[in-house]
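re: ur question from earlier - yeah i can do the single chain one, its not a big deal. heres the input i used so u can compare w yours
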Amino acid sequence: MLNCSFFAKPMYYICFAINRDMRQSTFLLLCFFWVFGSVSAQTEKTDSLRNALANAKSDIDKAQLLNSLADQYKQSDPKQMLAFANQALSLSQKLHFAAAEGNAYLNIGNANIISGNYPEALRSFANAQTVFEKEQDTNPTKEIKTALARAYGSIGIVFSEQSNYARALQYHLKAVRIYEALGDLNKCARVYNNIGIVYKAQNDNFRALEYFTKCLKAQEKTGDETLGITTTNIGNVYLAQKNYPKALEYYTKARSLFEKFPNP
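and the output i got, formated as tokens:
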């Protein structure tokens, strides 16, 4: 087997974790959505949101700020994330504020998936789906369509974690069709990656390579700093196919990309 020990530590984890266990690949799935910043920057943003919430006059503003605070805690404290999301849910339901209600369900689902409570995460994402589908019927804005795609993609991730790959693909494809229609290459790339991971978990290397390559092309157009992850995934497919020269080619590219972008 090709020795990947020459890669930097993040690459070493990626090289082997995906091939061992679909559960461990969640790290990649979630990293695609998380934005890693400095602790001080996160604290500053959290303090700013808390201050804005304390001074908010409108309940609509409060519901949105509660969701923003919930989202802010996904990097550090899923319990706090869940607490703020539940407050946002309660307030948005009283206001009949569908967008905030759906986003609260998404935040609740994310808090549960981070904590490993997949059944509860699935229920919350399904609730978000219901809210956004209903809202889209009367208010088909880009914001609502994007939120609905997030719900579909999140459901796809849960099904992936439960090894229900057929349902995972069903929901990922629903998500990516919306993003493609909206022309959102960044989000298309994320879902292409997740589709590739699902195919890889089923040992369908041909389709996995197809979607990882689509992801890579989209990322190259947008200048996405997670190119190293996708390039590694392509290398993993070639390694599984025992195409060692191509695997080495992509692992070498990935090493250079991780050196250029050390915190994708």
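Residues 118-138 form the longest helix (21 residues). not sure if urs matches, ping me
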